[in-house]
UniProtKB/TrEMBL annotation:
InterPro entries: B30.2/SPRY_sf, Neuralized, NHR_dom, SOCS_box, SOCS_box-like_dom_sf. Pfam families: Neuralized (PF07177), SOCS_box (PF07525). This is Neuralized-like protein 2. Residues 24-245 form the NHR domain. Residues 248-285 form the SOCS box domain. One of its GO terms (molecular function) is ubiquitin protein ligase activity. GO terms for biological process: intracellular signal transduction.
Amino acid sequence: MRVNNGTFDVVSEATLIEVQKMPPTRFHPYHGENIQLFHENLVAYRKTSFAHALTFSEEPLKPGEIFLVEIEKTERGWSGHLRIGLTQFDPRNHFKLPQYALPDLANMGKSWIYAVNKSHNRIFTGNIEIDEDQSTEPYQPVVGNEDLIQTPRGTFSRSLLLPVRFPMERKNGYCIPKKGSILPTDVGSRIGIMYVVNDDRAEMHFIINGLDQGPCAKNIPYQDGPLYAIVDVYGTTKQVRIIQLYGVTSLQNACREIILQMVRKEDIDILPLPTKLKQFLLYEV
């Protein structure tokens, strides 16, 4: 359904069926010894310590495909936060996993990994790293400026890249969280990773709460092997969940994803639905 001048329209059955046909994005069952996977390998939880918490995408990413996670739980008492990136190490080979993505896995080669921090708002212009707020020209994000984002795996609403229930503002033609309303390391923050191809090389981009951070790694030899997303549930980050951009695991989840594409998150409370269903839409139950 969609909110339209106070009325509610029903999304076609064909739309739901088309979404159901897309395979869901999951974590690979091979992971660090301190990781537990829940909800059909959609949620990764670090059960103890702060090490041995590597997780991988179940399938390698296609150029332009976004792998998106949301931070669901944090834990005080640790330093550092989520690490995320790409690797050509294949989890199907059950290679010996190091304790950490940084520096251990990165030092093994074939991996491009970066730590998410509280003030991740930098982009690259040429070889110069600049703060976006100090840029004289608006950065042109690789995902474009439209409300619908087209990728090789399908089209989805830009709203899925945004955290739920945080104040928004429009910038460069699209919505992003208001400055200071949510940090990249906070519960609810949505962190995406993708790569784009330039000739025989690729560059990796972070998408943090709907905002393309620019290329954080260049000259990736993507033709040398498939690129898997890697997430290290490290430090204060305790649990992450994959946000389904392309596929769903059930008709119930398909309905939720369609509604979240059609209804602004701040309008969910006005839907004529029971409280439990509203909580389900917001992933609160």
